[in-house]
Design a protein that fits this description.
The chain is of the alpha/beta class. The chain has 15 helices and 23 strands. Strands 14-17-18-13-12-20-21 form a 7-stranded mixed beta sheet, with helices on both faces. Strands 9-8-7-10-11 form a 5-stranded parallel beta sheet, sandwiched between helices. A hairpin with a 7-residue loop joins strand 15 and strand 16. Helix 2 runs parallel beside helix 8, helix 3 runs antiparallel to helix 5 and helix 3 crosses helix 7. The chain is globular.
Length: 499
């Protein structure tokens, strides 16, 4: 479809903003709603339920009832697998609808919503469905007169709170292992991007997921999100978002029932380019593509580029030359590669960071301004700063926008020290043709994922998470089951004298 086709579909779309509790679309208990506008051009998409503590409580009670009576947890793993596989198929069958909702909701280009977000969401659900009947329990090597069994059991009710940058993908990373393990889930999507989460819950029920197993309550973080994190009958919280809010999640756990809290938080990922890497152009083009993808609204965006002084001028020149192809354009045009920021508040935040970069002495190489002002949307030019120092605001703070900071270094030791001098530790990248240096630096970097001579590799089979203030636990891969299951040891005494 072309831009005109997507625009026509967008004009005709009808948004159902009701919550999904116990398998049914419902209004908030107090009837409150909030308006949802698109960052593409400010159009009103519709109104969405503004969930409060009473709505969260209803969803948790529904989830607990579903867990307690075994309608999902009690099913054989092979049965859960088939239902989740159907859920993944339903997601793919609704591909156009989900992609359009995602683009209208948070501004990403339709080509990526369609080609990345929807298939990745479906693959995640399908992968965990396939994994569920292939995880075995254990028998401990005890003495012959006893048997010690180690079993992995679902926790119960999982609260999931996800951000607005990849609404479906982030939800699937948590829904996949949580549901496959037999838990019930209450999902609170970001108030900035709730639409696909609500539709996913409907598709899950259509696929055969029992009512109450997957509930969605939209609303604001300080209302619905806080109520979910404080709820005494929620066993764990899977959270992705800012480090500031992640701290609150831990605080809420302490104030309530000491529920498990798994935080996937911010990043300020370092991208180290050494002079012995022979293809400076590939490194420069890779960092531009990775940084400006999804409008820079990615926690793992390589926003700090550390380049050896001897190749820095050439590197900056190439990156600057890449900027025009990432100029913001209509997200509903399949040719667009950079869309709108999620809302006016985020746009103002990004522009504020750009102003701070200028004020603190960094050299603006490209971009730096609001774009497409005539549309009424939320667009910012892809922006590149050179001459950045690691102590500057734009090098320390997570901007969550298309702003790239280039820092020059002289020695390997200096590069590693600069890269690690951050509160975050989500991802990093090392570019070197010297295998010894590549291994040495990769091991020295404090990050959950270190890429070598690339940045874009990604797969559901590989764990994702960070060191330091980038969070705890891991999303993706079989390791994610550790977050949503409990290990139980059962001892059995074997009496050899009894028949």
């Amino acid at each position: 479809m072309g831009a005109a086709d997507w625009a026509a579909r967008a004009a005709a779309i009808a948004v159902d903003g009701r919550a999904v509790i116990d398998g049914q679309r419902v209004e908030a208990r107090d009837g409150q709603r909030f308006d949802k506008h698109s960052p593409i051009d400010g159009r009103l998409l519709g109104s969405v339920v503004r969930g409060q503590a009473a709505d969260i409580d209803a969803a948790v009670r529904s989830a607990r009832s579903a867990f307690a009576d075994g309608r999902w947890a009690g099913k054989a793993p092979a049965v859960r697998k088939k239902i989740l596989q159907r859920f993944a198929e339903k997601i793919l069958s609704a591909r156009d609808e989900l992609a359009l909702l995602e683009t209208l909701d948070m501004g990403k280009p339709i080509q990526y919503a369609l080609g990345v977000d929807v298939p990745s969401t479906a693959r995640t659900i399908a992968w965990y469905a396939e994994a569920v009947d292939k995880i075995y329990d254990e028998i401990a090597p005890t003495a012959s007169n006893s048997l010690a069994m180690i079993t992995r059991e679902p926790m119960g009710v999982i609260g999931v709170i996800v951000p607005w940058n990849y609404p479906m993908i982030m939800a699937a990373w948590k829904l996949g292992p949580a549901l496959a393990a037999g838990n019930s889930v209450v999902l609170k999507p970001s108030e900035k991007s709730p639409l696909t989460a609500l539709r996913l819950a409907e598709l899950a029920v259509e696929a055969g997921l029992p009512p109450g197993v997957f509930n969605v309550v939209p609303g604001y973080g300080h209302e619905a999100g806080e109520a979910l994190a404080l709820h005494m009958d929620v066993d764990a919280i899977g959270f992705t978002g800012s480090t500031r809010t992640g701290r609150r999640m831990l605080e809420y756990a302490g104030r309530s029932n000491l529920k498990r809290v798994y935080n996937e938080l911010g990043g300020k990922s370092a991208f180290l380019v050494f002079p012995d890497f022979g293809d400076v152009e590939r490194a420069a083009k890779t960092v531009a593509g990775s940084m400006f993808f999804n409008q820079g609204e990615s926690c793992n965006a390589p926003s700090r580029v550390l380049v050896h002084a001897s190749i820095a001028d050439r590197f900056v020149e190439i990156v600057a030359g890449e900027v025009p192809q990432y100029a913001p354009a209509d997200p509903l045009d399949p040719a667009t590669v950079m869309g709108a920021l999620v809302d006016a508040t985020q746009m103002k935040t990004v522009l504020g960071f750009i102003a701070a970069g200028r004020d603190e002495g960094a050299r603006l190489v490209a971009g730096g301004h609001q774009a497409r002002t005539e549309t009424g949307g939320c667009y910012v030019e892809p922006t590149v700063f050179d001459g950045v120092l690691n102590g500057m605001t734009i090098a320390r703070e997570e901007i969550f926008g298309p702003v790239l900071s280039i820092i020059r270094f002289e020695t390997e030791a200096e590069a590693v020290a600069l890269a690690n001098a951050s509160a975050y530790g989500l991802q990093a990248s090392v570019w070197s043709d010297n295998v010894n240096r590549a291994h040495r630096v990769a091991r020295a970097l404090k990050a959950g994922t270190v890429h070598v001579n690339q940045y874009d590799e990604d797969d559901i089979t590989v764990p994702f998470g960070g060191f330091k203030q980038s969070g705890n636990g891991r999303d993706k891969s079989l390791h994610a089951f550790d977050k949503y299951t409990e290990l139980k040891t059962t001892w059995l005494r074997i009496d050899a004298d009894k028949p």
